[in-house]
TrEMBL record:
Biological source species: Paraburkholderia terrae
NCBIfam families given in the database record: PRK09270.1-2
Origin organism lineage: Bacteria, Pseudomonadati, Pseudomonadota, Betaproteobacteria, Burkholderiales
GO molecular function, one term: kinase activity
Protein name, UniProt field: Nucleoside/nucleotide kinase family protein
Protein's UniProt keywords contain Kinase: yes
Keywords from the UniProt entry: Kinase, Transferase
Length: 206
């Protein structure tokens, strides 16, 4: 459930004639996608979700670069491409539909041009791990967003969600736990260090 204090801010972001872009950031398993969907459902016809995960490098490229075992780390994304898309969404013309990629977990690959963003969409939500990083191409993200919310969740719950997610997509429980410990939690610590740069600290109501 989204509390009234957050809904009030969202009403401002979905009103008026100007496009707003809201970033949702948090560690893996924090509930960014769940919050995105909750906002989408609360403001029907006014929101399009454009996840950062659509900019995962393809598996064949991760293998070529020797990064397949670290999939999800900051250097396993096309960060420059992501910034370029955000800029297009910020500067979108009235007669233009912008298309964005999506990441399909069932095949562990991005799919190009799967999300359409009409020009009259008042609020675009983009959610991902590295929106508040201040180096490389990632530093170009923050200036293109109107607000960034940090999604907070209990660490033990977040890790259990991740294990369950990995199991649901084919890993056995032991492999899922190892991936969480060796990959997801490494990224989580880096992401958590950016928490204070967010405009809003989001907490789910009970």
């Amino acid at each position: 459930m989204i509390e009234d204090r957050y809904l009030s801010r969202l009403r401002q972001l979905t009103s008026g004639s100007r496009r707003h872009i809201l970033g949702l950031v948090g560690a893996p398993g924090s509930g960014k996608s769940t919050l995105s969907q909750a906002i989408f459902d609360a403001f029907p016809g006014k929101v399009v979700i454009v996840p950062m995960d659509g900019f995962h490098l393809a598996n064949v490229e991760l293998v070529r670069l020797g990064r397949a075992s670290r999939k999800g780390a900051e250097d396993t994304f096309d960060s420059a491409g992501y910034v370029a898309l955000l800029r297009r969404l910020r500067e979108q013309h009235d007669d233009e539909t912008v298309y964005a990629p999506i990441f399909r977990r069932e095949i562990e690959e991005p799919i190009a041009n799967a999300i359409s963003v009409p020009p009259d969409t008042p609020l675009v939500i983009t959610e991902g791990n590295y929106l508040l990083f201040e180096h490389g191409h990632w530093k170009g993200v923050r200036p293109l967003l109107d607000e960034i919310w940090y999604v907070n969740v209990d660490s033990a719950l977040r890790q259990q969600r991740l294990i369950s997610r990995h199991v649901s997509f084919g890993r056995d429980e032991g492999a899922a736990k190892r991936w969480v410990e060796q990959t997801d939690e490494v990224n989580a610590r880096l992401i958590d260090a950016t928490r204070d740069r967010a405009d809003v600290q989001f907490h789910w109501s009970s």
